[in-house]
Amino acid sequence: ECLGQLNVIQRKWVYLEPIFGRGAMPHEAARFDRVDADFRNLLLSVADDPRVLSILKTPNLKELLSTVLDQLERCQKALADFLEEKRQKFPRFYFIG
Length: 97
Known about the structure:
It contains 3 helices and no strands. By secondary structure, it is mainly α. The longest helix is centred in the C-terminal third of the chain and has 29 residues, at 61-89. 13% of the residues are buried.
């Protein structure tokens, strides 16, 4: 379960990091920065001990993963809402994926 969540988190983070990392949507950047810090800290602990089962020893891992996933989903929803707003104002943006 935890590894599945970590995989979903990683995919969402890889999608959102280039967008928020460049300063887009400053009102959501603070939320992403907190998630980014948590995710990077988790990955640092994985890098210290790359054995799969070692990550399960992380305290409050389930809560951390669910919190990070929830925050990433909120960032993704804010991005989708932002793009939809821009598409309403400028119909040519419907071609932007």
